[in-house]
Amino acid sequence: MLFPSKRLRSRIKTKAFPCLRCGAKTVTFLFWATLYVVVMKMTILKNSKNHTVKDWSTVPDNYSKWLGPVLGEDDEIDTTDNDWLEPDNATIIELDKRVDRVQEICRLRSLQTKNINSKEFFVDHAHNLVWCNIFKAASSSWLYNFNVLAGYEKKFLARTRHTPLTLARKKFPRPSEEELRDTINTPGVISLMVVREPFVRLLSAYRDKLENITPPYYRKLARKIVAEHREAATKVLGEIESFGPTFYEFVAYLIKKYISGTTTFDEHWAPYYKFCTPCAANFTVIAKVETLSRDSTFVVQQLGLGHILGRKVRNRRMRLRTVMNKSRDGKNTSALLKYYFGQLNMHMLDKLLEIYGIDFEMFGYDSNIYRSYVRK
Average per-residue pLDDT in the chain? Predict the structure, then answer.
C-alpha cells in the first residue's frame, strides 16, 4: 500500500523527531556521566587508593606538640618489634640493680625520710600502677599510656585541644601522701620512676623554657635572670645579643638559689631525689630514657596491660629519627653539651654537681665527662 509523499513526511515528522530528541538527551547524559567517572578516577579514587587507614595505636599527631624536649627526645628510639615482648633476664637483673643502688645511696647519704612529695604522682588503682611524672624524662610517653588506661579513646586523644597532663589529672587527681604510701605498699602494685641523664635533662629544660620564645611564666623568669646575671656573663662571654638568658646565666641563677639556701627548684629542673623522693617512696621499677622501650615493656608485661595499651607507642617524630643523640633541630647532643657547658668554668660545674651530683650517683650516670667541656 503506497502512501502519498506528503503524508509520509508528516508521519516521520510526528514519530521520528521525538525519538531523535530522546536520543540526544541520552547521549548528553552519557557524556556527562563518563566525564564525571573520569574525573573521579583522576582525583578522589586515585588518592584513596594510596591512602592507608590511620593506626590509632601510635602516638597521635596531637601529642607531638606536647612532647617538649629540644635536646634529644624524651623517649628512646624504638627499633624493635612493636609488640610487648617478654623482658629478658638481663633486663630484670638490671632493673633490680637499679633499685638496690637507689636504696644504697639513700643509706650512704642519709637521705631516708618519711615524707613523700606526692605532687606529681599518678595513682591508677584499677591497674595497680603508680608513676612519678618527671618532666623531660619520658613524661609524654607515659602520660599517653595513663590516658589510654583512663579510658580515653585514641581518636579523641588525637583531636582534643586539652594537654595530656590536663586530661590525665581529670582521671587521676593528685593523691594525698597517705593514699600514695598505702598504694605503694600494697602487694602487686608497681611504682615507676623514669629518669634521664641529669645534665641532658637540665639543658633540654633550659633550651625549651628559657633560651628562646617562652611561655609567659618563664618569660618573666628569663627577664629576671638576665637582669641579675647579664653584666657578669658579658665579662666572660663578651657581647650578648640574645634577649633570653645564656646557659651561663641560667646556671648562675641556679647556683645563687642553691647558695641562698633554697631547697625547691622548678619542676622542669628539680633534682630527681627531691622531686620524686625515691628514698621515701621505695620505687619497684627505676626506668631510664636511654632504655625506655625495654623498661616500659617490663612494666606492661608485669601488669598485663598489653591488651589495653595495644601495640607499642612510637610517635612520628621518633620514627623520623634513627638515633637517640640528635636534638629536635637536628644537632648532635654531644656537640650541644660541649657548646653550652663550654660557657661554664670548673667552679660553676662543681657547684652544679652539688645540686645534681646525688642524681648522677643514685641513678648510675657519670659526670666526669663534663670536666672536659668547661672552660679551663
Answer: 81
Angle, alpha carbons 301-106-118 (nearest 5°): 60
Angle, helices 292-303 vs 139-149, to 10°: value is: 20
What the block records as the C-alpha cell of 333 is 647532643
Residues (pLDDT < 70) of the chain are 1-23, 38-85, 213, 263, 311-331
Q: Which residue has the cell 615507676?
A: 192
Helices (H), the chain: 5-42, 44-50, 61-64, 89-108, 139-149, 154-159, 164-171, 177-184, 198-206, 216-237, 247-259, 272-275, 278-281, 292-303, 306-309, 316-320, 333-341, 346-362
Q: What is the pTM of this model?
A: 0.75
Query: Identity (one letter) of the amino acid at 74?
Result: D
Measure Cα distances from 36 to 22, 23, 252, 304, 318 in Å.
21, 20, 69, 53, 42
> At how many degrees (to 10) do helices 198-206 and 247-259 cross?
110
Q: Do 73 and 321 touch, CB atoms closer than 8 A?
A: yes
Asked if residues 269 and 254 have their Cβ atoms less than 8 Å apart, the reply is yes
Question: Cα(270)–Cα(52) distance, rounded to whole angstroms?
Answer: 43
Q: What pLDDT sits at residue 14? A: 60
* Sheet of 129-132, strands arranged across: 121-124, 129-132, 190-195, 285-288
Cell of 160: 582534643
Provide the 8-state DSSP code for 125.
Answer: G
Residue found by looking up cell 595499651 in the block: 309
**C-beta atoms surrounding 315 within 10 Å:** 20
DSSP type of residue 332:
B
C-beta neighbour count of 273 within 10 angstroms: 21
Report yes or no: 174 and 119 within 8 Å, Cβ to Cβ.
yes
Are residues 224 and 337 in contact, defined by beta-carbon separation less than 8 angstroms? no
DSSP string, 146-173: HHHHTT--HHHHHH--S-HHHHHHHHSP
